[in-house]
């Protein structure tokens, strides 16, 4: 069907496809950030059950490096704060992309139905003029 579309409608379809791809990427990034945030919050909860003098290790690449309780707690809290901001930012981006997608979908629908006589036009008058 796309081959039979007017050029303006074809352009809108391509924009919709691009937005859909963007929405999927943002959704995946948000899901990854939410997973990391959950893991970080779980680590912070577990840290509350550990005595402050306990020998602890953190992962640095392929190595485990000894770390202090306070340092581990600070790093985890900072990471949680950063991830919370990241998730909120991605939610906003996800909403913006969704709104753009819906607007573009509406514009395409109007183009295909011949409704508004193109972009930016108002509704047709009752007498067709």
Automatic annotation (TrEMBL):
Gene3D superfamilies per UniProt? 1.10.287.370
Pfam hit, one: Prefoldin_2
Q: Which GO terms describe its molecular function?
A: protein folding chaperone; unfolded protein binding
Q: Where in the cell is it found?
A: Cytoplasm
Is Cytoplasm among this UniProt entry's keywords? yes
PANTHER family, from UniProt? PREFOLDIN SUBUNIT 1 (PTHR20903:SF0), PREFOLDIN SUBUNIT 1-RELATED (PTHR20903)
Assembly? Heterohexamer of two alpha and four beta subunits.
Q: Which named protein is this?
A: Prefoldin subunit beta
Origin organism of this chain? Answer: Halodesulfurarchaeum formicicum
Q: Which gene encodes it?
A: pfdB
């Amino acid at each position: 069907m796309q081959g039979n579309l007017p050029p303006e409608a074809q352009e809108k379809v391509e924009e919709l496809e691009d937005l859909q791809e963007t929405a999927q990427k943002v959704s995946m990034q948000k899901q990854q950030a939410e997973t990391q945030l959950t893991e970080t919050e779980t680590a912070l909860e577990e840290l509350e059950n550990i005595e402050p003098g306990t020998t602890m290790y953190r992962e640095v690449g392929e190595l485990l490096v000894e770390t202090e309780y306070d340092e581990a707690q600070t790093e985890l809290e900072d990471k949680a704060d950063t991830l919370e901001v990241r998730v909120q930012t991605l939610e906003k981006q996800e909403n913006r992309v969704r709104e753009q997608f819906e607007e573009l979908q509406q514009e395409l629908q109007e183009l295909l139905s011949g409704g508004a006589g193109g972009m930016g036009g108002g509704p047709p008058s009752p007498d067709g003029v």
